[in-house]
Amino acid sequence: MPFQSFNPPRRILMGPGPSDINPAVLNAMSRPVIGHLDPLFVRMMDEVKQLLQYAFQTENPFTIALSAPGSAGMEACFVNLVEPGDKVIVCINGVFGGRQLENVKRCGGIPICVEDEWGRAVNVEKVEQALKDNPDATVLSFVHAETSTGARSDAKAICALAKQYGCLSIVDAVTSLGGVELRVDEWGIDAIYSGSQKCLSCVPGLSPLSFSAAAVEKIKQRKTPVQSWFLDQSLVMQYWSGDGKRAYHHTAPVNSLYALHESLVHLHNEGLENSWARHQEQHQALASGLQALGIEFVVPEAERLPQLNTIYIPEGVDDAKVRSHLLNVYNLEIGAGLGAFAGKAWRIGLMGYAARNENVALCLAALKDALSS
Amino acid sequence: MPFQSFNPPRRILMGPGPSDINPAVLNAMSRPVIGHLDPLFVRMMDEVKQLLQYAFQTENPFTIALSAPGSAGMEACFVNLVEPGDKVIVCINGVFGGRQLENVKRCGGIPICVEDEWGRAVNVEKVEQALKDNPDATVLSFVHAETSTGARSDAKAICALAKQYGCLSIVDAVTSLGGVELRVDEWGIDAIYSGSQKCLSCVPGLSPLSFSAAAVEKIKQRKTPVQSWFLDQSLVMQYWSGDGKRAYHHTAPVNSLYALHESLVHLHNEGLENSWARHQEQHQALASGLQALGIEFVVPEAERLPQLNTIYIPEGVDDAKVRSHLLNVYNLEIGAGLGAFAGKAWRIGLMGYAARNENVALCLAALKDALSS
User: Fold this and answer.
1) Which one of B106, B258, B268 has the shortest CB-CB distance to A227?
2) pLDDT value at residue A242
3) B6 to chain A: which residues are within 8 Å by CB?
4) Does A33 sit within 8 Å of B21, measured CB to CB?
5) Which CATH code for domain B23-268?
């Protein structure tokens, strides 16, 4: 049986991720591999840490890129901060809140669910009520930017409540990091995870992670060992320590880290606030165009994520046929609905390098054509 | 603070991994990102599966590349196949056997250790005795190619014993896959994990994995959920199923999978037996040269891995100084000793693309210079 090299076409990626990538980041991927304990590589990892601290707006010394996707970043937060029997308040307003719940259960935690309608933000009053009703809860988790619905929750208010009621906060920032305002230290976030393939416009496969001093202290005070060896952050901390005493843990994904470094250098050069503003501007242009096509948004305007636009599929329109048309005629990928929204909604991503004039113009033109074909 | 792109030098990688890489594999890394649910990507994943089946010499339908390093591949085997209270025989003859033990404990398994001297193969008689003494054991695990010592164990004999005594076998093939004879179906291996960055000469970050029908059945019959959501292979199986009903699990590391595909195409073109023979030939050339320099091997000849040569640091020689000389003067990386061998041994890798005439010649010349400097 003959096998040949795989030569993918150039797609325009406007789904829920992976997002369009800066060509400079792709170039970084193909730089020569060096050893993961090479002094030059260690120095680069230190820069990745500093650049992630900037992106997260934190001075947390424990700020790293986990060598696995965002789903593993999520699990790293739960397995390290939840011990069997711990009560955890979990906010669920989409697929990824549901996945947090699954994580709590698999760690042996006792979940208290705060549920909201899909497509809406987490209700802050309900969160406060759950905190009042459960004074013995130790952790509160929620999703800042729900990738399944496009809703943005008020991370600042929710984390302030968690602190007020003595809970550590775990925040899913997979789709928010780099795309909308996010201030880890100022908002008092204790544990946060993200993904490389969304608004950072890096290749998929890495999960930026940051833990506050209180979260690190909780890990140090655990009564039971972390159930995962690979995700045990007390071991990973030693691997990422910049003090020259780096302890071998696993072989880092060298080239993917080159790419993350490069994407973070670009974010730093653009400036974080400028990046947030660019996402908002491109979203407004896209939203105007969609409205002109008579298309409606799932999420109320005040709770919308600029980088992930979830829209109802117009009545009588064939979901799969339109997406195939976009892909086959225009090399344009938009996202299908996920979970409760499967077959009912599309998700148009404007993440990172994809949040550009040319992408918005193409998307509107191609969608207009597909809807009338 | 100014940040700039990271431009690594071209190193020659002859440590314990990552290994030298085929330039074609690096080129594959920088191909355009496409969506992880794109029909073209799904087709490529199917090819990766077929090529891994070839590399493992198996027809196991459950043969995948885990989206994380070999350490996570190890953990995936244990968390899926060991339930709390299960008795597991673990063979320990180096660092990675010790890590298997750690995994057994964190799954709530009851470990029975079979210990051998570092630098020696696992003793097959001791394994049989442990199986006789523990008729209630359900799993037996060992390391085929101990990356910390360079010893090769008799996987065929050990797996036959496991089967005879009714245990599932878990085999660490991180350093063996592609470099020495390995036949998953013929030898009756039940669960096997490897790494992308050793004899496959791909970038680090992925873990090839294969489960036999018996292993898959064990997962289906579990009484407790797998403690890790990310590593729960009953979910991952649905993601890798080629039947068009792919269920979303996480975002695959698209570009790293391009690289793995490319490296496996090269292995397929060379032929597996040819690759094993090439590793053996280059090892013999290296061993002759080292003997001429008066250097001694740690592992007895019959138990040596051709792709990982562990040698004693000659008396009076400064470990760090020699390795720095090799790196700074020749851009050549060899490995330090690990665990019990730290400061006492070096590890010279001849893995994948590094098992070449020019690498052996350079390594011998550079080492001769460094030892006399």
Assistant:
1) B106
2) 61
3) 28, 31, 44, 47, 258, 261-262
4) yes
5) 3.40.640.10
- ipTM of the prediction: 0.96
Contacts of A41 in chain B (CB under 8 A): 8
Contact B265 A5 (CB under 8 A): yes
Supply the mean pLDDT for chain A: 96
Ranges of residues in chain B whose predicted pLDDT is under 50: none
Task: Give B61→chain A minimum CA distance, Å.
Answer: 18
Domain spans of chain B, in order of start: 12-18+271-372, 23-268
- Chain A residue closest in CA terms to B108: A227
Count of beta carbons in the 10 Å neighbourhood of residue B333: 23
C-alpha–C-alpha distance, residues B156 and B186, integer Å? 8
> Can you tell me which residue has the tokens 């359900």?
B138
pLDDT < 70 stretches in chain A: 1, 242-245
Are B12-18+271-372 and B23-268 in the same CATH fold? no
The predicted pLDDT at position A159 comes to 98
Residues of A in contact with B68 (CB under 8 A): 67-69, 72, 230
Q: Do A69 and B18 touch (CB under 8 A)?
A: no
Q: Parallel, antiparallel, or unpaired: how do β-strands A139-143 and A168-172 relate?
A: parallel
Fold of the domain spanning A12-17+272-372: Aspartate Aminotransferase, domain 1 (3.90.1150)
- Residue of chain B minimizing CA distance to A255: B203
| CATH code matching the domain that covers B12-18+271-372, chosen among 3.30.70.260, 3.40.50.10470, 3.90.1150.10, 3.40.640.10 | 3.90.1150.10
Please report the pLDDT score of residue B242 as a whole number. 61
Q: Which of B248, B251, B338 sits opposite A197 (nearest CB)?
A: B251
Question: pLDDT per residue over A153-197, tens digit each?
Answer: 999 999 999 999 999 999 999 999 999 999 999 999 999 999 999
